[in-house]
Amino acid sequence: MLQLFPDRTARDNEIRSLYRLGDDVWVGTRFGVWRLDTHTMALQEVPFFQGGRSPIVNTITSDAQGMLLVGTYSGMYRIDPQSRQYVMFRKHQALLPTVNVRSIFLDRSGVIWLGSRENGLYYARHSKSAFSSLQAVLPRLDPEQLRQTVTAVTANERYIWLGTAAGLLEIDREHETLRKLSTAGRVNALVQGQQHEVYVATDAGLFRLTPGGTLSAVTAPFASLPNVAANIRDIKVDADGSLWLGLWGDGIVHWQPGSTTATSYMSKEMRQKIGDAVQALAVDDTSVWVGSRYSGVYQVDKRTGQVQIVDSTRGLALPSQDVQCIEPGNAGQLLICTATGLVIYNPTTQQQELLDKRAGLPSENIFGAFVDKHHDLWLMSSKGLTLRKDQTQRTITFTVQDGMVATELVFNAFYNDGRGTMYLGTIEGLSIVEPSYIWINEVPPKVAVSGIRINNQRLPQSMMQQP
Are 125 and 164 in contact (CB under 8 A)? Predict the structure, then answer.
């Protein structure tokens, strides 16, 4: 017979729960959880959080990820069986820490059900939420300062920069401070340069920000172009560090930081229709792809400067000439957002795919689109954030009910940091998304016949059970 404390009372040696996972048996006791090595029959205590006292265990089970779930007198805890250590739920050691959790059940859809002694039945998902806000991540910041429409966003490991209608916000995550910077105009786009500087594209011109330092106006690109107005709608950084600026009514400008001259393209094309503007840019090795407000898509050859319209003669039939984003897709494709759907266009094969309401989109007015490192497609609209998993036709839309700050997203206001976090501008502030924590129910529902009616008369249950 194995005992935890051979020299102590029977009550102290009470075994309250047993659970086998692989070759190990996990033992719930009045003094926390112990691991029994079935080969050596040795018992080893799982150390509790530093400074705390192991709770009395009621039950042990595991979830779909192989983590141990432990129901105790003081809530539900989680243990990593590989490291044999307790793991926090985000910032909390336990779920329902004031509840005596007596039983745990995980259903086939991934929902966890917790039975308590005197507090009834609870259900939830115990995994970390995929959606959060700045207020949740940085609670010391004034929430009222964060509750405004975010028109542009970029970030690094320390700072988050937000564009607004009134200027620029710089948030220092390390010190949990916020700094307001005036730009004298609406911020339309933000991008980080090769020297870690941040370029700010606004209605009133171009600005350069040193992180944590000075914001200064950049006038050099327009000094040599007196007939070009500095109303910048989009900005992209090329591989050589040069900037491409998309303008309202004046085409695009190419400028190398440090240079006193710049080159203008497409002024003639953008002045053919009153109110036309460059709304989106995408840059690859050979071309700049330009999305306009009224004239569809253009391609500018970076070597020769030649401008070409991209239309049905090249396999592109846009559902609307109002192009709101152009972003790189999978395998050399372009994602083209329009007011009436998303077009996935392959310039090489000159083939396209249209996604609209027939494909399950909640709205055809697409504000932004991008693909993540898993090649999954994300779409932004006024009806939420829509995910289309790679190699599938299934679409899933996330809204404020899923944890987003607001359902309505903002025109082209997103940033993917490439490390597993996405930042989305909404009409109520910034939503932070970690896609790896998004839970998707892949279990198909069971089909069952609950009743049969003939001439509006319900068939008796006894007849339904007959062969």
Answer: no
Give the model confidence (pLDDT) of 298-308 as tens digits: 999 999 999 99
- Could you report the per-residue pLDDT of 117-157, keeping only the tens digit for each? 988 999 876 566 789 999 888 888 988 889 999 999 999 99
Strands (DSSP E) along 183-294, which ranges?
187-192, 198-202, 205-209, 215-218, 232-237, 243-247, 252-255, 263-265, 278-283, 287-292
DSSP three-state, residue 144:
helix
Q: DSSP letter at 84?
A: T
Question: How far is it, in rounded angstroms, from Cα 165 to Cα 148?
Answer: 9
CA angle 76, 77, 78 (to 5 degrees): 130
Q: According to the model, what pLDDT value does residue 332 have?
A: 93
Mean pLDDT of the chain: 92
Q: Does 401 score more than 80 pLDDT?
A: yes
Contacts 24+ apart (CB under 8 A), 107-112: 108/443, 109/441, 109/443, 110/64, 110/439, 110/441, 112/63, 112/69
Domain limits, the chain = 15-124
Contact between 328 and 345 under an 8 Å Cβ cutoff? The reply is no
Which of 55, 20, 48 is closest to 35 using CA atoms? 20
CB atoms within 10 A of CB 58: 21
Look up the CATH superfamily of 15-124: YVTN repeat-like/Quinoprotein amine dehydrogenase (2.130.10.10)
Is residue 378 within 8 Å of 404, Cβ to Cβ? no
Residues ≥6 apart with Cβ < 8 Å to 213: none
- Laid out side by side, the sheet with 57-62 consists of 57-62, 68-72, 75-80, 85-86
Structure tokens at 297: 């898509």
Residue spans of beta strands (DSSP E) within 4-56: 15-21, 24-29, 32-37, 42-45
**pLDDT at 463 exceeding the cut of 80:** no
Residues 6+ apart with CB under 8 A from 355: 341, 342, 343, 344, 361, 379, 388
DSSP 308-320: EEESGGGT---S-
Nearby residues of 29 by Cβ (< 8 Å), 6 or more positions away: 4, 13, 14, 15, 16, 56, 57
- Who has greater pLDDT, 225 or 401? 225
When pLDDT is averaged across residues 407-435 and rounded to a whole number, the result is: 94
Closest C-alpha among 352, 406, 353, 354 to residue 382:
406
> Tell me, what's the pLDDT at 449?
80
pTM tops 0.85, yes or no: no
The per-residue pLDDT for 467 is 58
